[in-house]
Amino acid sequence: MTRSEAFRPAFLVAVLCAALVVLCLLSIALGARSIPLDQVVQALLGRSPSRLVENVVWSVRVPRTALGLTAGAALGLSGALMQALTRNPLADPGLLGVSAGAAFAIVLSVAVLGIGTLFGYIWFAFAGALVASVVVFLLGRLGRSGLTPVKLALAGVAVTSLLTSLTSAVVLTDPEALNRYRFWAAGSLADGTGDVVLQILPFVGAGAVLALVCAPALNSLALGDDVAASLGRRLGLVRLQGVAAVTLLTGAAVTVIGPVVFIGLVVPHLARILAQQARLGPDHRWLLPLSAMLAPCLLLSADIIGRVAVRPSEIQAGILVAFIGGPFFIAMVRRRRLAEV
């Protein structure tokens, strides 16, 4: 690689890092409550004369921004990983039933066990996501041909449909579960606290490590199962690691911020476009980190807009991500960019 070729990825990473820093500062400075910028800076430096401003900055906005970074990176990584595992450019983490499993566990814990706090049902939601993913993986292995991308996708659709129906049946019979499910399903960073971020951080970290370890094998898998096997890749192990990573990443993020759609679907395509511009090619050793950086940019942008657009109320980030990501993804499909990336 020449010096000019090495400069391209370095410049790309620098630009994305700068964008993340700017968005983090905007997320801390802007909100439903209007606070002068100088007071925000003083609060960050620990010199604010107002205890209220200091509490808003450190207890609300900083944890909310940290949650956006953590959950966004998790969704971006899991989306890129899902598309690589299934070799399906339209795949997203919901394909494995992770979101549906988390949703069903949440409403079940509220309706049956009477759990009413986030710290109570987050673990049930994560367990539900994990169980759903394991069931999908086991169903996908049935048959003579073993685990294949098509069977994995079909198993995910079947399990998701079943869990969605069960969730609807539960929430329609329990008003409290319905209220909590409606807020959770819209997707929001409003519940972001330091404790919440610390709770999901180990799962996101473990999932990120698994995903990055799988990156070289994903490059082989993109050439087809036969080629990957001839290169010495153990396909079952690679897919098992991938499913575990998707479960950890998506389960941890979705249980806290809800099933925010289009992040895991659109961001990997954006990462591929940027990788092409930087002449990196379809290398998952670059695509996965780029997706992990782009996804928080999208999620934080939506959250910032939602907080300032209708002050003093706010629009939940999941709704704005759908408005931003939906038309963009349709435009990508219409221009046949999926075939190009």
From TrEMBL:
Keywords on record: Cell membrane, Membrane, Transmembrane, Transmembrane helix, Transport
UniProt organism field: Sphaerisporangium flaviroseum
The keyword Isomerase belongs to this UniProt entry's keyword annotation: no
Similarity annotation: Belongs to the binding-protein-dependent transport system permease family. FecCD subfamily.
Membrane topology: Multi-pass membrane protein
Membrane spanning stretches: 65-82, 94-115, 121-140, 152-172, 200-222, 243-266, 286-305, 317-334
CDD domains: TM_ABC_iron-siderophores_like (cd06550)
Subcellular location: Cell membrane
Annotated protein name in UniProt: Iron chelate uptake ABC transporter family permease subunit
Major localization class: membrane
